[in-house]
Amino acid sequence: ITVLGTIMQLKDRKKEPEKMVQLDPLSVMSESYKAIRTSILLSSAEGPPKKLLITSMSPKEGKSTVCSNLATTLADDNKRVVLIDCDLRKSRVHKIFQLDNEEGLSTYLSGAFGEEIIYDDLTIANHSIVPSGPAPPNPTELLGSKRFKDFLAKLEKEYDFVLLDTPPILSVTDSLLLSNIVDGMIV
Questions:
Q1: Strand 161-165 vs strand 81-85: parallel, antiparallel, or unpaired?
Q2: 0.85 exceeded by the pTM?
Q3: Which of 55, 145, 163, 171 could pair with 175 as two cysteines, CB 3.0-4.6 Å apart?
């Protein structure tokens, strides 16, 4: 397994780890995310992977923190980035970016809402977010649907990077299912 970089543990609980790159761009932690960005950009001779899945083995290991900081770092490098909250059970992305979660990926995939679920981040240029939406009764089926694959294909054409924040591998099968339709996976 290729190591892209390491992120130190944040001991100051008063800081927002999910927004470290944005709030403290010169910190050691921010530099760690920039190193990971560089590793991703140089990871393949054909070009960097466009669709990246971020996961972990267990809950509370920092998937959403890595995803939000990586999205910010890529956007700071003048890349168009969309971050999709694919954790349809225990979503956090909407909380990090202070978005309403009434409509999102789950409502779009179930056909109840259109593509107006893509929100531009007003504090970070080149950065968009797709919140998870309300928890559906059938998350794995929605994520495995043709509608989701078509949505990803559309986003891949519009953005330089599509980041998927997914549930932990040992809890549910969603991340493994999605690993077949992305270009790279970060654990």
A1: parallel
A2: yes
A3: 55
